[in-house]
Amino acid sequence: METDVVVIGGGPAGLAAAAIASQQQVDVTIFERARELGGILPQCIHNGFGNFIFNKMLTGPEYAQHYIDLVKKLKIHIKTDTTVLKITKDKQIIATNSKDGLFKIKTKSIILAMGCRERTRSQILLPGSRPAGIYTAGTTQRLINVDGIMLGSKIVILGSGDVGLIMARRFILEGAEVKGVFEILPHPGGLTRNIVQCLEDFDIPLNLCHTITEIHGKKRVTGVTVAEIDRSTFNPKKGTEFFIPCDTLVIAVGLIPENELSKQVNISMGPNTGGPVVDNNMQTSEAGVFACGNVVHVHDLVDDVTISSELAGKAAAEYVKNQIKEGALKSIHPGKNVFYVVPQHIRCDLKSSVTLYFRVKNIMKNAEIKLTEKNYIVAQKKERIVKPPEIVKIDILPEEANKIKQSVEVSVEGELF
Amino acid sequence: MKDSKIKRELIKSFKKHRLENISIKLNEKIVFLEGTIDSYEKYIIAGHLAGRNSIIRGVVNNISYPEKKKTQKKKGKDEFIGSADVVIVGGGITGCSIARELSKYKLKIVIIEKDEDVSCGATKANNAMVHSGIGEEPGTLKQKLCVQGHFLFEKLSKQLSVPYRQCGMLIVITKDSLEDLKLPSFLSNFLAKYVIPYIILRRGKKIKVPLEKISRMKILEIEPQLTDRTILGISSPTYGVTSPYEFCIALAENAVENGVDIRLNTEVVGIELEENRIRNVITTEGKIRTGWVINAAGVNADEIAEVAKDRFYTIHPRKGSTLLFDKSNAGYISHNLSFFQFPMKEHTKGGGAMVTTHGNIQWGPTAIEIPDKDDLSVSKDEIYDIFEKYSRLLPNFSKKSIIAYFAGIRSATFTEDFIIEASKKIKGLIHVAGIQSPGIAASPAIAMMVADILKNEGLTLTDNPKFEPLRKNHLIIRELDFEKRKKIIEKNPLYGRIVCRCEEVTEGEIVDAIHSNIPAKSLDAIKRRTRAGMGRCQAGFCLPRVAKILSRETGKPIEKIMKNSKESQLFIGKSKCLLEETDGD
User: Fold this and answer.
1) With contacts defined as CB-CB under 8 Å, which chain B residues touch A133?
2) What are the chain A neighbours of B548 within 8 Å (beta carbons)?
3) Which residues pair with A364 in a beta bridge?
4) Interchain CB distance below 8 Å, A101 and B565
């Protein structure tokens, strides 16, 4: 078997990339390990998707359906219920499913769009026993919304990431009691709109600077011990511990880009993104291998995933047709108060502007964002407020980018909140 | 030495340790302690003092301490559910090894296991090491059986098709090894370079276990990630690593193939005697007529001895917690590494940084005396203690790659050695108690020793001509080469569908586990057999899928699917089930 572009992952990133690539008249094959396309979106039955792209508030399944319909209209080979096992250095892919069995496919270009997975209780070293009733937020979301299975009746949520906040509301709507959301940091991890719509509107208490110090229960969770956190040491304060009886603990402590397959092709990984280093075409350090969506870094909004994945899809098709421009590679580094920036490289000469996505380290008011090369300011922008959970963007125009000699740094200055 | 003399010495040493108001009784080298004490720590000290003299056969520690809980006895059923030549109490590695060994003879054997699967106690939660015996106290039974047993592991693993890696062990002596002695550096350097290696090598010679001194240069060459503070190492090349739950399940499956019966979810609550001879075993499911009982009940062995009216030891649970790191670390180290420390912590070899048979790395375990026999919690202190301890060996290891931690309970007695013997009081009762580390390595030798004891006690052992030492093939799809894998999927498409993506486990393998000769009835039982849920996402992805397959294959509704034992319910019902309840109010 042969194809031009293999897209690994049929979530929002893979779908958008596949659609655009196919529209450039190349042969595209999507591999999706789940039985349905759409990735995580089909389980996100709340609305709030598509504000930028469609100018409306869609639900996750609606947003996904738009791209599923698009992909199905195009001549794209879709292999669902299919797991990619291996990518070889010469772009051969080994995959398995129950219909075609084990097979190999040779491709000219690969788009990595595997998304991300959830951090578990072990990764945050949560002490205690290991009973039934501990779930990551995404798993609870799938169980309730897709599988129609209810997990418990008295819920404690650790972490205030978006999925955790949305699940807090979901549990209330399902008739469960949500004892509270506990966040170790002094600020919530999710988007402000979710704090308001999911917690405040449902009177669910948000406890900042708190964490769980022990999980109780031998067979099923019977409760958790919670304690206040010392803001300087991040250790629990002695004497502040209290017990909360519950039967379910939901862990919503962040996502990790899923790059086990990417590592097989030996591409360079970014230090703070957890994903591959990419250029403005979303091309990785390996020619012909592109990456998009949450594989590259964890996005807040699916709209941004779609936008960057379309770049990857277009570039992958151009690569197949040998049309990709190999301009000089210039690098972009995170500077003061910036945790990471994507893309990490841009190739000149640009014909259109490039959006840089970056995450700040601290909450800041009246923030001044600067893109500088030594003392020279390439671009700048002001934001009323910047927060770590909300990605910040800055556009560079082609004429600005072309002035970059070697590398630029993105930095943010402002009043600490 | 006479009992009265031992007693006098004990009274003296109890006084010295300010253990007051404790009555000490001695009878045929068995110490009985009674009284009340103000902490669990002192309860442990008292027990160990009583068991320190190697002449002591056992310590029954009945001292009460503040947090002591009374165990509620379960009720047995009166009707007969069968008969057997030999009843083995406990389906851990000890019980299953014995069952498999005895299945070589024409015997009707039953294993009684209180949990929902075999291998549920210490067997499933230890650091998987197959010790060579070099770390054991010289002259102990556990050392003897460990040395014998570990030499049998490779062959046995092949017969049972269980992974085994004879990776060897490096005992690493570093500049930190003797820091607690607070000696001048020239002296501690001399000890580390010459005296300690000499003592260890001599120990090895005595028990005929090969050992080799490895220079700093060579050890850093074979384990380049080791700390720069390394002085030298001692290699024990016959050390290995197994997958203990898989090994135990394989023993049990092979035993079943050879005619052994296993009763899960069945607890022994009593033993009926007739003129000091075993007559019937009473369980929560009914009575079993038998003449022979092998007490391999792990942490509960003292309770089984009690109901058999021959309790001469108390088990004091000692928890060991282990940290498990992601497979992406495969190859980071290639040997088990143990950090030599002197003075040694009492009653533990100190664990190590270990490879596993599946490519993960493990650090641990800890050793903590706890009053509760089923407290499997891992504390923050334990996690950080392990981090600190082994960071001294592997300073650059990424602790962020941790994927799980777990605890197991060692069934230690106060004499801290294995107790494997026929009861001196009850004919037909065999004690196999106090099997803590190196119980895995020793298990093949324990089983052979038990067979000998039975023979000496008068049980006729006639060879079973139908005995088949090879376990029936079980498929591991990810290990097949391309063509074989392709063919097998053509035969059964379920082998083509991946359910657990981290460990590459197919639906076909999960279905196989559910319908195997010891059917996997819970999520954890499937996990132990297939590895589904053992990877980096810790079942986040496959849990709903595996639960649904289990529900489909067994016909049980989803809310009846358990994580492991009864009452470890994963789900409460269909979504909206809570709203239906309130509607009815």
Assistant:
1) 570
2) 147
3) A386, A416
4) no
The CATH code of the domain that includes A24 is 3.50.50.60
- Could you tell me which of B296, B251, B256 has the C-alpha nearest to residue B153? B251
Same domain? A229 vs A167: yes
Whole-angstrom CA distances from B553 to B87, B117, B293, B547, B568 are: 31, 18, 35, 10, 19
Over residues A162-186, the mean pLDDT reads 96
- Of A253, A282, A313, which closes a domain? A253
| A274 & A384 share domain | no
Q: Determine whether the interchain pair B536/A125 forms a contact, defined as Cβ–Cβ distance below 8 Å.
A: no
- Is the predicted ipTM greater than 0.85, yes or no? yes
Counting the structural domains of chain A, the total is 3
Q: Mutate which of B403, B497, B577 to test chain A, going by most A C-beta atoms within 10 A?
A: B497
Task: Confirm whether B131 is a catalytic residue.
Answer: yes
Query: Which residues constitute the domain of residue A85?
Result: 1-118+254-324
Say if CB B332 and CB B167 are below 8 A apart: no
Q: Give which of A269, A147, A170, A156 is closest to A205, Cα–Cα.
A: A156
Residues A332 and A296 in one domain: no
Task: Quote the minimal CA–CA distance from A85 to chain B in Å.
Answer: 8
Q: Are A125 and A98 part of one and the same domain? A: no
Asked if residue A47 and residue A63 are part of one domain, the reply reads yes
State how far the Cα of B240 lies from the Cα of A232, in Å rounded to an integer.
Answer: 45
Model confidence at B581: pLDDT above 70: no
Whether A128 and A152 map to the same domain: the answer is yes
> Are A319 and A283 within 8 A, CB to CB?
yes
Distance (Å) from the C-alpha of residue A82 to the closest C-alpha of chain B? Answer: 7
- Put simply, the answer to whether B538 touches A120 (Cβ < 8 Å) is yes
Instruction: Check: CB of residue B118 under 8 Å from CB of residue B248.
Output: yes
H/E stretch holding A304 reads helix A302-320
- Calculate mean pLDDT across residues B288-303: 98
Non-local CB neighbours of B336 within 8 Å, separated by 6+ positions? B129, B167, B168, B169, B170, B239, B241, B352, B353, B354, B355
User: What Rg do the C-alpha atoms of chain B give, in angstroms?
Assistant: 25
Residue B1's pLDDT is 76
pLDDT band per the 50, 70, 90 thresholds, residue B299: very high
Angle A375-A377-A378 from CA coordinates, rounded to 5°: 130
Q: pLDDT (tens digit, 9 = 90+) per residue, A354-380?
A: 999 999 999 999 999 999 999 999 999
Q: Which residue has the higher pLDDT, A234 or A304?
A: A304
The burial of B452, by beta-carbon neighbours within 10 Å (0-12 exposed, 13-18 middle, 19 or more buried), is given as: exposed
Separation CA A221–CA A128 (nearest Å): 10
Q: Average pLDDT, stretch A154-162? A: 95
Domains of chain B from N-terminus onward: 3-61 (3.30.1340), 80-123+244-314+415-456 (3.50.50.60), 169-237+316-413 (3.30.9.10), 477-560 (1.10.10.1100)
Q: Could you read off the pLDDT of A77-114 as tens digits, one per residue? A: 999 999 999 999 899 999 999 999 999 999 999 999 99
What is the pLDDT of chain A when averaged over all its residues? 95
Query: Does the pLDDT at position A271 exceed 90?
Result: no
Nearest CB to B406; choose among A102, A130, A149 = A130
Residue contact A139–B540, C-beta within 8 A: yes
Same domain, A350 and A338: yes
CA distance A219 to A217: 6
Which tens digits make up the pLDDT trace of A45-73?
A: 999 999 999 999 999 999 999 999 999 99
Domain boundary pick from A295, A324, A353: A324
Q: Nearest CB to B501: which of A33, A81, A150?
A: A33
Q: How many CB atoms lie within 10 A of CB A349?
A: 11
Q: Are residues A224 and A136 in the same domain?
A: yes
